[in-house]
Design goal:
By secondary structure, the protein is an alpha/beta fold. About 40% of the residues lie in helices and about 15% in strands. It has a single domain, classed as Spore Coat Polysaccharide Biosynthesis Protein SpsA, Chain A, CATH 3.90.550.10. It contains eight helices and nine strands.
Length: about 250
């Protein structure tokens, strides 16, 4: 299965090169698209320099540099859009964080479920995954956000806010047809709303989620609060379907 792994990057200089290497070593058919929002630590320059020198990266690693920080959701969409327009078609698409919160080894499990017939697969922390290294405040906010999303959107999904996901080409086409209304991590809930309304078969498998090993988190309490408000708006829209086109 030829898969494109989209890595939304912002100030991930400590993580990006080993993560790309781990993803590529997992399967010779995998490719990586790094979407960097003009990182102040020049993560993109490090990727650019390595692309020209490291054996096995040419043709398998693509770099997109955006002019400013525009949120994780927009970065993922940019990578998915590039993948759908690439000369060589991909059979599957993956999004994951750049901080090793999501284990590269688990990509195999997600792609296996996608191959079995699901259109969307979530690497899920709830109900049976393991979370390590998170402070209690993060655990509480995460549980609260997911409880709100499940109650207001659709109870069939247990983890709305984790960004370790696997998509069929059909699912990606559906996402890109809809204009993005929310930025940051709240787009994870918005995108699931679109996929649920489209009637896609959504699967999940438990993962080990580890607090980032290197660097500092880009998520703060302001973004978490905005995410909760955004989920309420997404739920309202979810039950009042509208025809929206990508913008």
């Amino acid at each position: 299965m030829r898969a494109l792994v989209v890595l939304p990057s912002y100030n991930e200089r400590e993580n990006i090169l080993p993560l790309i290497q781990d993803v590529l070593e997992g399967d010779p058919e995998r490719c990586v698209c790094v979407v960097d929002d003009n990182s102040p630590d020049e993560t993109y320059r490090l990727v650019e320099q390595t692309l020209a020198s490291r054996a096995g990266w040419a043709g398998r690693v693509h770099l997109i540099v955006r002019s400013k920080k525009d949120g994780r959701g927009g970065a993922v969409r940019e990578g998915l859009r590039w993948g759908r327009q690439a000369n060589v078609p991909f059979d599957a698409f993956v999004e994951m964080d750049c901080d090793y919160s999501h284990e590269p080894e688990a990509i195999h499990d997600g792609l296996g479920l996608l191959r079995s017939g699901y259109d969307v697969v979530i690497g899920a922390r709830y109900p049976d995954g393991v979370i390590s290294g998170w402070p209690m405040s993060r655990r509480v906010f995460s549980r609260l956000a997911n409880a709100v999303a499940r109650a207001l959107i659709d109870r069939s999904v247990r983890d709305y806010t984790n960004g370790f996901r696997f998509y069929s080409p059909r699912a990606v086409e559906t996402l890109l047809r809809h204009r993005q209304e929310h930025t940051g991590y709240v787009y994870l809930s918005e995108s699931l709303s679109h996929l649920l309304r489209a009637g896609f078969r959504i699967g999940a498998f438990p993962i080990r989620f580890r607090n980032r090993e290197r660097g500092a988190s880009n998520t703060d309490l302001r973004e978490i609060g905005a995410a909760l408000a955004g989920i309420v708006q997404i739920a309202w829209d979810h039950h009042r379907p509208k025809n929206r086109t990508a913008g």
